[in-house]
Design goal:
It contains four helices and twelve strands. By secondary structure, it is an alpha+beta fold. Strands 2, 3, 4, 5, 7, 8, 9, 11 and 12 form a nine-stranded mixed beta sheet that branches.
Length: 242
């Protein structure tokens, strides 16, 4: 009898844990999200002054004519108790968490320009985001020359000044949403034109998400580095003579 009661208790506990895990609807984007590149100004993330002109023209635009994996997207969430603003520095991304499985690439349609990878009718979020809990959400986008996954692309940004940059690289975020995870599939809608019972979904149809060109950081050529090394040795030699 005790074993039976223990078994039932464990089953109830497991069921309760499963029910506590929230869900979101990753499959419904429709016309509520549009991303586009902006190559007329540099992104300020890697040190360029806001509004600084690039003069590079239309580079890598996410238009209907572009096919293939030219851009990638990742849904992030922030567990702060109030709605957060989009990160304005590279360091600020450390307070956001990538939602496993919520990834996408660019599509050929001008309506949305995003195709979810691993799309389904909804899926469970990490245990850190339980059903009924409201968190901030953003969609981050970047050009494929930064990497095919969020961790790789963010790593390049974090080391931009020390490891050199990638030419014609783009990075940008969507508008910020603020929603509560649903209790079951298909889960809370995260792309929508207006607020609903679950909160404020991501909407960029009126003001498209801009992926800004990252200002290149020149990587020293081997010859330049060699000259710098010789200069240092010469200075040491002069010091020793004195």
């Amino acid at each position: 009898m005790k074993k039976l009661a223990l078994t039932i208790g464990c089953a109830v506990a497991v069921t309760g844990a499963a029910l506590a895990q929230g869900t979101i609807n990753w499959s419904a984007v429709g016309g509520n999200f549009i991303a586009q590149t902006n190559s007329t100004t540099y992104s300020s993330l890697v040190g360029a002054s806001a509004g600084q002109a690039t003069g590079s023209g239309a580079v890598g635009a996410t238009t209907a004519g572009n096919t293939g994996n030219l851009f990638y997207y990742q849904l992030l969430f922030n567990t702060a108790s109030t709605q957060q603003g989009a990160p304005s520095t590279v360091a600020a991304y450390s307070s956001w968490t990538a939602l496993a499985g919520a990834t996408a690439t660019n599509g050929v349609s001008s309506n949305g320009r995003i195709v979810q990878l691993n799309a389904s009718t909804g899926f469970a979020t990490p245990l850190a985001w339980s059903a009924g809990v409201t968190n901030s959400i953003i969609l981050v986008g970047w050009s494929a020359n930064l990497g095919t996954d969020y961790a790789t692309a963010l790593g390049k940004l974090q080391n931009w000044a020390t490891t050199g940059s990638t030419a014609n690289a783009f990075w940008g975020t969507s508008a910020v949403g603020y929603i509560a995870a649903g209790p079951s599939n298909p889960g809370s809608t995260i792309f929508n034109a207006s607020a609903n019972a679950n909160g404020l979904p991501i909407n960029s149809i009126a003001s498209p998400a801009q992926l800004y060109l990252l200002q290149p950081t020149p990587t020293p050529e081997p010859a330049t580095m060699a000259l710098a090394g010789l200069g240092g040795l010469a200075m040491l030699a002069l010091r020793r003579k004195k």
